[in-house]
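Team,

Forwarding the record for the chain on the shared tracking sheet. I've put the sequence and predicted structure together so nobody has to dig through attachments.
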Amino acid sequence: WIVFFQNVDAIIGPDEAVVYPEHLTDELDYELELAVVIKKAGKWFSPEEAPDYIGGYVIFNDITARDIQRREMRSGVFSFCKAIETFCPLGPWIVTPDEIPDPHDLAMELRVNGEPRQTSHSGRMSVTIPEILSHYSALGYSAGDVVSTGTVSGVAGFSPDAASLYLEPGDVMEAEIERIGVLRNPVISWEEAHGEPAPARVQW
C-alpha cells in the first residue's frame, strides 16, 4: 500500500480552478478517487468497527505532477507532486452513509472537456474501505480527517498517449461518482491566477 499526507492548504472546492504551475511541471494529471470523511477521533480499530467512524463520502480529484512524481518515486516517497497549491479538489459535498448503502457499488467517471478519461466502479477496489480505515487507524484519526481510497484506471500518465492527454490551461475536469455528484474544476494558467507570468523554471 502507498500512503501520503496531503497539504491541507492545497484543498479547493467545486468550480474552483486548478492552477497550472508551468514553472514546476509539464505533466499535469488527474486521478478520480472516492474519499471518506472521518466523523470522530479513533485509533487501532478493526474493519468491523470502521463504519462507526465514517461521517460521509466525497469525491477527490488527486491532481498530480507526473514528472515530479517520477523523481520522487526514486526515493520511494512522494508528496510534493500532489501537494502543490490547488492540487486537492474535494466535493461537491459530503454525502452521509445513510444515502450510500454500499460504497463498493458506485459507478465512477472522470471527464476532461466532456471526454471520458477514467470509467470504473468502486467495486473494483483491491481492498475494502473498512480494511483501509482499519489499517491506517494506527496513525490515529481526528474528526474531519479525509482518507482517500486510491484512483481508478485511465490516468494520463500511464497511457501510451500520455503527452496528448495531460491537462492544459482551459481544460475542464468533471469527476463524477454515483450518488455523490459531479466535482467540476477548470484548469487555468499561473498568469491567469496570479496576474503575472510564472516564475523562472525550477531545475531539479
